[in-house]
Amino acid sequence: MARRVAIVGAGVSGLASIKCCLEEGLEPTCFEGSDDLGGLWRFTEHVEEGRASLYKSVVSNSCKEMSCYSDFPFPEDYPNYVPNSQFLEYLKMYANRFNLLKCIRFKTKVCSVTKHPDFTVTGQWEVVTLHEGKRESAIFDAVMVCTGFLTNPYLPLDSFPGINTFKGQYFHSRQYKHPDIFKDKRVLVIGLGNSGTDIAVEASHVAKKVFLSTTAGAWVMSRVYDSGFPWDMVFMTRFQNMVRNSLPTTILNWWMARKINSWFNHANYGLTPEDRTQLKEPVLNDELPGRIITGKVLIRPSTKEVKENSVLFHNIPKEEPIDIIVFATGYTFAFPFLDETVVKVEDGQASLYKYIFPAHLQKPTLAVIGLIKPLGSMIPTGETQARWAVRVLKGVNKLPPASVMIEEVNARKENRHNGFGFCYCKALQTDYITYVDELLTYINAKPNLFSLLLTDPRLAVTIFFGPCTPYQFRLTGPGKWGGARNAILTQWDRTFKATKTRIVQESPSSFASLLKLFSFLALLGAIFLIFLRSNDNVIVWENALIRVRYMLKCPDYPDVTLCLKITFRKVEFSDKGSLPGLSCKEALLAPPVTERTMAKRVAVIGAGVSGLSSIKCCLDEDLEPTCFERSDAIGGLWKFSETSRDGMTRVYKSLVTNVCKEMSCYSDFPFHEDYPNFMKQGKFWNYLQEFAEHFDLLKYIRFKTTVCSITKHPDFSETGQWDVVTETEEKQETAVFDAVMVCTGHFLNPHLPLESFPGIHNFKGQILHSQEYKVPQCFQDKRVLVLGLGNTGGDVAVELSRTAAQVLLSTRTGTWVTSRCSDGGYPLNMMKTRRCHNFLAQVLPSCVLKWIRERQLNKNFNHENYGLSTIEGNYWKFIVNDELPTCILCGTVILKTSVKEFTETSVLFEDGTVEENIDVVIFTTGYTFSFPFLEEPLKSLCTKKMFLYKLVFPSNLERATLAIIGLISLTGSILAATELQARWATRVFKGLCKIPSSQKLMAELTKKEQLIQRGVMKDTSDNKRDYISYMDDIAACIGTKPSVPLLLLKDPRLAWEVFFGPCTPYQYRLMGPGKWDGARNAILTQWDRTLKPLKTRIVPDSSNSASMSCYLKVWGVPVLLASLLLICKSSRYLKLVRDKLQDRIFPYLISIW
Question: Mutual orientation of helices 974-990 and 609-620 as an angle, nearest 10°?
């Protein structure tokens, strides 16, 4: 199996070959003779030997959507037909995007490629290169030749009698750069190809006269096709290709001529091809007919004779004086570094199977990429060739026997044709879609229209009837790209983006408005029917009205909205495991506690996100908080520093929030609308500072103060008080507090399980925990192994891939990877974290829910293909990372299994693979949490989340005056959850809410722990909790859970947003204690704040269809019905059928009535 691959040439095909090698885990080395990539598309003022050359005005003949790499669209603001300078920029972006430059050796000429002595066994090649005058030889497992066919100009001087006597200037089109040389000259361009017509047209603007000589003629097409669409986006569709290949060649040629002549009659312009039975590559030129009709370009037949200062054409007796002759006579191709026994070129043809593999080689380890002229774009064709070739080189795909390949090659040379579809006049020409589909079939990547029609009808219709853009080749199979579907569905948007510079407003469709209205009414009706048809533990609608009336008669308990809501099934408001506690009604209707134990002074440990919310919540409940913060600033984890001093964990500099601003704000203090939806740590810290200043929290914080110990006061059983010992500037103080809120989080103690990695102590490289990681510059050009695939592991691996020589990412269990953005570019958690989704998750079977989730997550990319699949039986684990899949695809991050053993410089993995020369090992293995300032047994018990009632209150305390805030892992925002925890805890401290007795809690939890130890049940206390379920659970204890049915009666618009919109923290300020008057407006305007930072450039909405399209849609159905009616009335046969049906149906209808 090939591992090391030599690639000759860094043009469009060479770049594609490099990337394909990286995708398949191969090690490519690309040799490029020049000092830059781009091949043909890199314009230089001077012609360079051995490489293609173009003139400065070259514009692509295929539009950007058809000529891009299949997983890398052009920027939407690029023109549809791209100038060579921008095309080169695109190639550089492609190379940089997929980190291909590290694989290219510039200024390195390949001198020879010869078989290794043991080629018949190994298939290896010896490659001799020349770099800066120094020859080097290396052995490669495979070779990919990507030199193209535009390097050796074809200059048939022998076919032009008298050319040696010509006193003027003549040269091949390869040497042409600018039209200035034609100024006031009489120019003859020989050859009616794309280059010849371009030069002729361009010369006609400055030359005195221009002649364009052609022997065979050609069909000329414009880039601008019907209705102004790019020609290839209309012409190159699967539907049209199917029709063309189904038609006899004679009929197809007639149709083709009729279609092309609809632009201008080629016969009248002297351009009609002599042989119309075979298709010659059409010429793309928008100006040629205009140049011809104005006399700026004169079409002439083939040249008969060249004289000193003139030229004589066939069938034209008059000599034409000529100053310059440009031979646009094409190119020949050759491989001077290959022996003829490897690839032999005869009559412009090479014996290559599928235009790629030499048919006679014993080992298929040499591939020629890009030696083809498809009736379409070259880039996706060459890329597809490379994808298949690399898999053949790797041994994944096999070639047929040599005899079969040779027979097919000979048949192509003889130009055998079956009588259907296009018959091409040259051996290198082929049909674009048919050829690419054939290669895609070999790698199981050809889109299956029948399957897509069942799973995604919209996509299937677009693929079949729409342009066959390269993204279709990435929908499935190896190398699947998660953005392919979206790229296909938005291809016309990008096409029109560059042309719709003047927007004309159109009136919205009334049909769409009616559809929205009826959809809303139908949805309400469906919800109403669900209300009526529910049987199990249901409160019917009439009972709901009774409860509303009861609520209005309860002036003593104005906050009892939760117990008056419409419930659809019984909900146990306790931890899973059926831990019994007080019901919401008992908790809310219980009389206020007025004992002496009601807290007044509260100690808050830590001034991070949890600490700040705890201070504010204390103030909201008229408590007296004192916050102890050992650093000199607020923010905790979010305050970046270059070092993690004093064991404090700080974020790395590039950290970006995983939860958008609307979901991760304090419930009564939204982010500023100009803040980005996902922000870097510095911006988030600014928000915390604004929050603290807005609510005047800083005066309650004692900075540079360390909490030494927290112990029970001697009369704790009666008062619930605590003795808190602190140290400030080496001076200790002791104070008594009525309650304590521990807000230190769980990112304090790095978990570094060195004992789980045999041989790690022998490793000579650098070992560090992610706590020490700050910036990637320290790892420049190093081989880095990242252990652990969590959010931090993914972030560190991705960031290091830009600077490190190689990044290996080792994971034991795998994970699901999701992006911050969802469909339409909206924040993912605002689209997914919704009450309606949570409701469905509760009613759907777990297997169905799992299938839906996996399908949604695999929609972006197939996790199995990327080595990220989770181990069966593990809990639902996912991380947020926008770039990790791409890095894996590009080979900049390589996924590995768990580590089996370390050596001094290498690592052995569980799958038996070995990675040598590892420089750095980064443990992203998480953290352990502890509370060193607490006394035993409380300290040990608090480290077990299972013994924390609702993850807040230690269950062994007879007085609930100590709360752990923020020690939680959720599927949503931690900040919002910690704030709600603090709101509940402060009300418990104050005696307004109750929790079960410690005796009852400990008894139940001890029994549960025994069951876990015996293996009867699993400990899920460390698993991520569902965000909405947990938030609603805590909110129910406070009395702030929003009642959707009640809101539906009072404020339908708000109810709709609460249930179907994102579950933002503002929902928990709509009612109950801590109600915020701005909550409703914050909910109704949350999307405005979301879109505000995105719409930095306002463009009028252009999503409506063009007016003609709208008219067609509106009148299409009536016209069709009217046509059928006319047909029915005008046809005697149909009239007879109608009469017969009436005779049978009318009596039946009369009998019914």
Answer: 40
Taking the CA of residue 865 as centre, how many other CA atoms within 13 Å lie in the half-sphere pointing to its CB? 21
Nearest of 973, 988, 972, 967 to residue 581 by alpha carbon: 988
Query: Residue 432 region, left (φ>0) first, then alpha (ψ -120 to 50), else beta?
Result: alpha
Q: Is the pLDDT of residue 831 over 90?
A: no
- Asked if pLDDT for residue 602 goes beyond 60, the answer is yes
Residue listed under structure tokens 């047929």:
400
> What's the pTM?
0.54
Angle between helices 1027-1038 and 974-990 (to 10 degrees): 20
Q: How confident is the model over 197-208, as a mean pLDDT?
A: 89
Q: How many residues does the chain have?
A: 1153
Asked whether 129 and 136 are in contact (CB, 8 A), the reply is yes
Residue 248 in 3-state DSSP? strand
Torsion of Cα atoms, 144 then 147 then 148 then 149, to 10°: -130
* Distance in angstroms (rounded) separating the CA atoms of residues 975 and 321: 84
Residue with tokens 């190639």: 91
- How far is residue 548's CA from residue 74's CA, in Å, rounded to a whole number? 59
Q: Is 343 exposed, middle or buried (0-12, 13-18, 19+ CB in 10 A)?
A: buried
How far is Cα 1019 from Cα 1129, in angstroms, rounded to an integer? 76
pLDDT of 404 above 80: yes
% of the chain exceeding 70 in pLDDT: 82
CA distances from 686 to 366, 695, 699, 891, 1135 (A): 58, 14, 18, 37, 79
Q: Distance from CA of residue 500 to its chain's centroid? A: 26
Q: Which two tokens stand for residue 310?
A: 């003139």
Phi, psi of 597 (to 5 degrees): -75, 0
Helix, strand, or coil (residue 810): strand
pLDDT per residue as tens digits for the range 717-728:
889 999 999 999
One-letter amino acid at 846 equals: S
3-class SS of residue 998: helix
Q: How many CA atoms lie within 13 A of 123 on its CB side?
A: 20
Residue carrying the six token digits 């001076």: 731
Residue 439, both tokens: 């290669």
Buried b (16+ CB within 10 A) or exposed e, 208-228: ebbbbbbeebbbbbebebeee
- The tokens of 324 are what? 């310059």
For the purposes of burial, counting CB atoms within 10 Å of the CB of 1108, is it exposed (0-12), middle (13-18) or buried (19 or more)?
Answer: exposed
Q: Contact 333/149 with Cβ under 8 angstroms? A: yes
Q: Please report where in the chains the tokens 């003027």 appear, as a residue.
A: 168
d(CA 173, CA 153): 8
d(CA 340, CA 337) in angstroms, rounded, equals 10
Q: Which amino acid is it at 836?
A: C
The tokens for 359 are 């048919």
What is the distance between the alpha carbons of residues 652 and 649, in angstroms, rounded to a whole number? 10
State the maximum Cα–Cα separation within the chain, in Å, rounded to a whole number.
Answer: 124
Q: What's the rounded Cα separation, in Å, for the pair 677 and 831?
A: 13
Instruction: Measure the N-to-C terminal CA separation of the chain; round to a whole number of Å.
Output: 80
* Lookup result for tokens 């055998």: 416
Sequence-distant (≥ 6) Cβ neighbours of residue 368 within 8 angstroms: 144, 145, 335, 343, 350, 352, 355, 356, 357, 358
- The pLDDT tens digits for 27-64 are 999 999 888 998 888 888 888 877 788 888 888 888 89
- Give the chain's count of helices (H) and strands (E): 37, 48
For residue 735, the one-letter residue type is A
The b-or-e profile of 1034-1073 (16+ CB within 10 A means b, else e) is: bbbbbbbbbbbbbbbeeeeebbbbbbebbbbbbbbbbbbb
364: left (phi over 0), alpha (psi -120 to 50) or beta: beta
CB atoms within 10 A of CB 487: 23
Residue 452 φ/ψ, nearest 5 degrees: -65, -35
470's tokens: 């390269």
